[in-house]
Every structure is written in C-alpha cells, then in structure tokens.
Design a protein that fits this description.
Layout: E1 16-21, E2 27-32, E3 63-64, E4 69-70, E5 73-74, E6 78-81, E7 84-87, E8 102-103, E9 109-110, E10 124-128, E11 131-135, E12 142-146, E13 151-154, E14 157-160, E15 168-170, E16 175-178, E17 190-191, E18 196-199, E19 202-205, H1 206-212, E20 218-223, E21 235-240, E22 248-254, E23 263-264, E24 269-271, E25 276-281, E26 291-296, E27 298-312, E28 321-324, E29 334-336, E30 349-355, E31 360-365, E32 385-389, E33 393-398, E34 409-412, E35 416-425, E36 435-440, E37 448-453, E38 464-470, E39 475-480, E40 488-490, E41 495-500, E42 506-519, E43 534-536, E44 544-550, E45 558-565, E46 571-573, E47 576-577, E48 582-584, E49 587-594, E50 598-615, E51 618-623
Antiparallel strand pairs: 1-2, 3-6, 4-5, 6-7, 8-9, 10-11, 11-12, 13-14, 15-16, 16-17, 18-19, 20-27, 21-25, 21-27, 22-23, 22-24, 22-27, 26-33, 27-28, 29-34, 30-33, 30-35, 31-32, 31-34, 35-36, 37-42, 38-41, 38-42, 39-40, 39-42, 42-43, 44-50, 45-49, 45-50, 46-47, 46-50, 48-49, 50-51
C-alpha cells in the first residue's frame, strides 16, 4: 500500500481583471477565474469600493474590487474611474489544481489542492514482506514491488534464495531436511527409520524400493523342504544382508501342515551388513509322490532387502543341491520346468509349487504323463492338470519312474513359487553317481536373449551338459564360438540337450527369449570329484553390482564364478580384487576360489555370479543373484 502523506492544503483563486470599452464611454470590469459565471454586483457612488478578500487597487485612481470567494460562490465586483462608478458582471470560477499546477484552456493559471512529495520515484526504503518498498511514480508514498520468482527481499535488495521454502531434500541416504520459510537455510536434518532411506526428499521404505525395481533382493522369501534321495538332514534357508551400512532384522515363519496360519520360528535375528544366517527347514518333505498339501511352507521376512538361498541340505552328504530363491514380490504366473530324466527308476523327476495368495488356480501341461496322488489327479501328456490352492499351500507333481518332467508348462491366475527337481539323478544317465538336483524356476518374464555360457569350474576331464529351453515358438539359439549341436531350434516349453567338450565356454544368443540350464556331470564321467547339480544361467541384461551369498558346508573347493564385460571395473570378493580371467567374446570369466561361509561380491558395474562347490561324490551350484527386469512379458 502507498505510505500515508499529510500534504499542505492551499486554496486560492487567481482573478484576472480586464478593462474594455463597451462603446458608451464607460469601462467595464470583468473578473474571471474559470468558466463559472457569478452574479453581478454594484459599487456605491462616490468611489465606494467593495473590499476584496485579497484587496487590490489600480493606479490612476482606479480601484478594482473583488468579492471574497467561498466554495466557488463569488459576489459581484465594482470598479470606479474619475468619480464615475460602473457596474459590470464579474465572473469567477475555481479549478482543482494538480500538484504541479495546471494552466486551463483560457491560459489562466489555476491553483487548487497540492500534496508535497515525500520520496523520490524509484527510491527503495527496505522490504515489505518479500517485496521491495519502492517510491511510487507520483512521489506521494512507498508501495510493494515483488521480487522475481526464486528471490527474496533482504535489506531492500532482491537476492537469490538459498533454497525453495518448504521443499525437502535428502541429507545423505538416511535423513531428510526441509528449507525454512525464508528460503535462507535448511532446518536440521530428520533421520529416516532404520528400514527406510531418503529418496527424492522423502523417507521411503527400503522394501518398497526393492519392489519398485525387482531383483533377487527383497524382504519376503518362501521355501519348502524338498524331496531328496536322503531326507535324513533338514534343508537350510540362507539369508544374506547385502546392505553396506544397515542391519536387517530377519524372522523365520512356518505354516504347519494342515494349517494356513504361519507362526514365528524362534526370535528375530539381527543380521549385520554383509552377513548371513542359516535357518533349518525341518518339516517333512512330500516323499516321492504327487500331493496337494494344506500349509507346509516356510517364509523369511526382513525389515530391509536381503537375498536368500535354499540348500538341500547345506551340509555335505552324498546327494544335495542349492537354489537361489526369488523374493515374493518378484514371483510371476508362468513357468517352464527344468528337471532331468530319472535314470534310476525310483527317484522321480518332479516340480513343487507354493501359493502366495488365497484362491489361486494352478494348471500344468506336461510333455509326459504325471501321476495321481493325494488331492492330485493323473494327467496325460499334453493335457491340463488343475488344483485350487490358498496362501502357504504346497503342491508336488511327479512323473512316473524313469520319466522326465522337463518342459512342463506351469501357470496360475496369481503369482506362484515353482521349483523343478529330481530326487536323485545321474548326468548323463549312464554315469555315476546320482545326486539331488533342484532350481527355483525363473518365470518366463525374466528370460533373456543373451547369456555367457561359462563352463562350470574345471574338475577334471568332464564334459559340460546343457539344455536350451524355448520361451517362444520358433526360437533359434546360436553359439559363439559355435559348439556341437548349435544352432538350436525350439518352440515354447521345448528343450534340446547339447554336450560341450571339456573346458569349453560360449555365448548363447537369440532374437527371442530362452533359458540355458547347465547340468554338472557325475564324478565318473571324468570329473574325479563332485556329482550332478543343475543351475540356470543369468542373462547379461539381468546382472547386478552387489551380491551377498553363502557356500555349502563341508565342500572343498568352493567357487564364485565371476562374469563381467571386458574392460569393466574390478570385481571384489570380500574386499579382494578378483583376477585370473579368461575371455569369451566381449566377456571374461574368473573361477575365483573362496573359503567356506558367507561372502560379499561387489563392483562399480554390473556383473554375473555363479556359486559352485565340489566335494567327493556331491556338489551344489546356483546363481548368486540377478536383476529381475521383465524382458519377456506374458
């Protein structure tokens, strides 16, 4: 608002007198101060003169008399000359006068109400809120002149804001801070919860962040005790904390058989950065049968994202394997089962399912007939089996003895957990010894188009067995360098087995999604140690830059097989730079020996990792982790 001004008030009327001859020999006197006509007035004879408010006299005996002026009303005026009096009409008017004075159209200067300047136009007199207080153009006071956006007024000067008032930003990864109301500084930081980190100025749950960018890192994982040749040892679920700074609180839950209510198993475990913990899975496996079971599953829940693996079992025994587990939020609805032929005729090829939502309908179409069991009907080859499941329920479906369930298409109307396995298998069928194999299957959504087909860490003179599974009809997979049996042509769900010479690696590639699965050969095929294991390869599109993992117990040696693009930054395992790479096209591979226990692998660029362990007549292998970008939406 304009600042108040108390002006001096002047009221005056300037009367201009003009003498003329009216043709009778008499002079006429007219007073004018504008255009308003006033009433006539007569002077008294004998030279009497009406005294004006601001009286005046004319020389030579002439006296001009003007009446006083009040609010624009003026009485008549009289003039006399040489003893004669003459009476004439006197016209007076008043005109408002501006502060600088105005000359009217008659050329007569008029004077009215006048306000004195109180400032110089444009002059600055401090601040008015977030505006400059600036002298107005008429100089009668000061008015606000807002500063430009992104500025504030300080001591009469518009200056740039330090920050936008009220806006929040991150203070590192673990706190948020808000710009104060003046935009001059940030208020003190406010820490996020231990289960949160700061993203775009707000504290956001780390678990929610993991769900927004799916990978093998998550906060909830399912597991199921798998059917093995030897079920005397419990399976183990291993949870690893990949955080560099935060401690995870991890709780194991179990839903008993014939129940759909999970219960905590023991107390929560505090898991420091880069550390791992083992949970025992002691519930009875569905032994060598098809069956639908209410409950019977395990689940681990963490306060921050972690990774999880299942070892069946973790301890060294004649038959076991391991699998990377996928977090609950990353599970999908469509799978192709990888397994192998039961060459021993009594240790079946099978798949397991866990439902993660009530009211789930699960279907499967096997290439070979599947057998009936409790709650499960027999299904002929190429036909469709179906069951209804609720959250925590488990399903096992097997083929007849000496069969192979590989290539079975499993689907559901809600996301499910699927594992392909064989209780005990020879690879190939005529090479001893048999071993349990298993893998939690990657949903078709995550299958890629390019894989580094690195051979398993060398044991002896063993050959390398691969199966290539098709993600779409008409899939053609090439190998560079070429290996026997390539190129491979398969349709969706079909597979083709190829055998690669010892110590030979290649790059598999196609213009359609596919999945290569490697099978370790039995000890007596030339390896001299270890036995069959099965593991899916990770597409190059799905590499991560950090993995926490754990080896089996009682194995020697254990390996972290590192796969990276040539020229990429160093990979470190437990802080030690990995060396000893060999080249495969534009990639390179290192079979890095590691000690038994938990480990942390990391780099400044994405890389792949496979965990492998050997000992006399047994082995394990599984991917160390992966990004779960949807490459092949279903």
């Amino acid at each position: 608002m304009r600042a108040p001004v108390y002006p001096l008030i002047f009221a005056s009327v300037l009367l201009v007198v003009a003498c003329t001859d009216d043709g009778t020999g008499r002079e006429t006197v007219t007073a004018s101060a504008g255009s308003t006509s006033l009433g006539s007035a007569s002077s008294s004879s004998g030279g009497d003169t009406v005294v004006p408010t601001t009286g005046s006299s004319a020389s030579g005996g002439e006296t001009t008399g003007l009446s006083g002026v009040t609010d624009g009303v003026t009485s008549g005026g009289v003039s006399s000359s040489g003893g004669e009096s003459s009476t004439g009409a006197v016209s007076v008017s008043t005109t408002d006068v501006s502060t600088t004075g105005v000359v009217d159209t008659t050329g007569v200067m008029s004077t009215g109400t006048t306000q004195a300047c109180v400032c110089t136009p444009g002059e600055i007199n401090g601040c008015d809120g977030n505006a400059q207080s600036k002298c107005s153009a008429d100089c009668l006071g000061f008015e606000p002149a807002p500063c430009a956006p992104g500025q504030k007024c300080t001591d009469g000067v518009c200056v740039a804001l330090f920050c936008d008032p009220g806006v929040k930003v991150c203070e590192g990864e673990g706190a948020t801070k808000q710009c104060n109301a003046e935009g001059g500084a940030y208020d003190p930081p406010v820490n996020c919860l231990d289960s949160e980190s700061c993203v775009a100025g707000g504290c956001l749950s780390l678990c929610a962040q993991a769900e927004a960018t799916p990978s093998s890192v998550g906060c909830s994982f399912f597991a199921n005790r798998m059917d093995n040749y030897d079920n005397s040892q419990p399976d183990s679920m291993i949870v690893g904390n990949t955080s560099k700074t935060k401690t995870a609180t991890v709780q194991l839950y179990f839903t008993p058989t014939n129940s759909n209510v999970e219960a905590a198993q023991g107390g929560p475990v505090m898991l420091g950065p880069g550390k791992t913990v083992e949970f025992k899975l002691t519930n009875a496996a569905i032994a060598k049968a098809s069956a639908l079971r209410k409950g019977g599953s395990y689940r681990a829940q963490s306060t921050i994202p972690v990774v999880a693996y299942q070892h069946s079992p973790i301890g060294q025994q004649a038959t076991n394997d391991a699998s990377m587990l996928l977090p609950e939020h990353a599970l999908k609805q469509d799978y192709v089962v990888a397994s192998y032929k039961d060459g021993l005729g009594g240790y079946p090829s099978y798949f397991d399912v866990i439902a993660i939502a009530d009211g789930t309908t699960v279907k499967w179409v096997p290439p070979q007939a599947t057998v009936a069991g409790g709650g499960v009907a027999a299904v002929a080859a190429g036909q469709t089996g179906q069951v209804a499941m609720n959250r925590f329920d488990t399903l096992q479906v097997r083929v007849a003895n000496s069969g192979d369930i590989s290539g079975t298409f499993v689907s559901a109307d809600k996301p499910i957990w699927v594992v392909g396995a064989v209780s005990c298998v020879n690879v190939p069928n005529n090479v001893t010894y048999c071993d349990h194999i298993e893998e939690q299957m990657l949903p078709l959504d995550y299958w890629g188009k390019k894989y580094v087909g690195a051979h398993s860490p060398k044991r002896g003179s063993e050959k390398h067995y691969w199966r290539i599974y098709g993600g779409e009809d008409g899939t053609v997979v090439t190998a560079n360098p070429a290996v026997p049996g390539t190129p491979v042509m398969v349709n969706k769900g079909q597979w083709k087995e190829i055998v690669v010479p010892n110590n030979t690696s290649t790059i598999f590639e196609s213009d359609k999604p596919f999945l290569p699965v490697q099978y370790l050969e039995g000890t007596n095929g030339g390896a001299g140690t270890g036995d069959p294991a099965m593991y899916q390869m990770v597409a190059t599109e799905q590499f991560l830059d950090r993995y926490a993992f754990v080896t089996g117990s009682g194995y020697n040696p254990n390996y972290a097989q590192i796969i990276r693009a040539k020229g990429n930054p160093d990979v470190k395992v437990d802080g030690v730079i990995v060396t000893g790479y060999y080249a495969i096209g534009e990639y390179e591979v290192a079979d890095w020996k590691i000690a038994e226990g938990g480990h942390l692998a990391e780099s400044d660029a994405p890389f792949g990792i496979i965990n492998v362990g050997y000992t006399n007549v047994t082995s394990y292998a599984y991917p160390g982790g992966m990004k779960l970008a949807v490459i092949n939406p279903q």
